[in-house]
Design a protein that fits this description.
The chain has 10 helices and 9 strands. Helix 8 (175-192) crosses helix 9. It is globular. A 7-stranded mixed sheet has the order 3-2-1-4-5-6-8, sandwiched between helices. Strands 7-9 form a two-stranded parallel ribbon. The chain is 48% helix and 12% strand.
Length: 255
């Protein structure tokens, strides 16, 4: 990995996922700067990751070899305005924000074209994420490989078309939130039925991944393999909730 200095603008959830993923892999980055306007966020990061440096100003991050925009879409443009005067010609910008296109970032930066976008998800924290990436054509093959090499500790990083990135955001980046609360309820119910925590963890750790594999092989025909469907009367209602709310989220990201 040839990035000497890496700078995060934003020290929230996604920044923590990146840093924890590298830590789990035993990867020691040369220089990591994080800039965030929230002092509590900075203090938490400083305690958790002692090898990083908390930047006193956004300019410190803007001179990095790799600048990572780990911020929400509404504040991307104003932060681009702040870093624009300080970006080096050979730096690379990686945006983790949905909705804001590469072309919009390039235009805001006056034509600077060394830009990529990525959609990381929470499972990256254990190095098993699915993190779609897209690049502007200004980045050479070696530049792209260098960035992919940086991202690989997070998990899989397939190159995708940018026009599909928001769809990936809904289907991959947000998918855990559709399932974790259900698994959490199953966890609690299992304990109430008399299983120990170890037994419950063992069951869920085995059944959930296998259930995904069976679905992908058999689709809804998999139902024929199960003698009982306790939630059958609620399935269509749950499907409608998914259709309504996920479509709403996707429309907000695309428009």
């Amino acid at each position: 990995m040839s990035f000497q200095k890496i700078g995060f603008i934003g020290g929230g959830r996604i920044c923590r996922i990146f840093l924890k993923a590298f830590e789990r892999k035993g990867i020691s980055l040369r220089e990591v700067y994080v800039y965030d306007t929230d002092s509590d966020v900075c203090n938490t990061l400083r305690k958790q990751f002692t090898n990083i440096k908390i930047a006193d100003s956004i300019e410190e991050v803007a001179t990095s070899d790799l600048i990572i925009l780990a911020i929400h879409p509404p504040v991307v443009m104003e932060n681009l305005d702040k870093i624009k005067p300080f970006i080096k010609n050979n730096s690379t910008i990686l945006s983790l924000a949905p909705k804001i296109t590469i072309e919009a970032i390039k235009k805001r930066l006056g034509g600077f074209g060394r830009i990529a976008r990525c959609n990381p998800n929470a499972t990256s924290i254990i190095n098993e994420g699915y993190n779609p990436v897209c690049f502007l054509s200004d980045l050479s093959y070696s530049d792209r490989e260098n960035l992919l090499d940086f991202l690989r500790p997070l998990g899989k990083c397939p190159e995708v078309e940018e026009k599909k990135l928001e769809a990936y955001a809904v289907v991959s980046a947000m998918t855990p939130t559709y399932l974790w609360f259900i698994w959490d309820e199953l966890y609690s119910i299992s304990i109430s039925f008399g299983l120990s925590e170890d037994e419950t963890r063992e069951v869920l750790r085995n059944v959930i991944p296998a259930s995904v594999d069976v679905y992908l092989d058999y689709k809804m025909d998999a139902y024929n393999l199960i003698p009982a469907r306790p939630l059958m009367d609620k399935e269509e209602e749950i499907r409608n909730i998914f259709r309504t709310y996920l479509t709403r989220v996707f429309d907000r990201l695309k428009n």
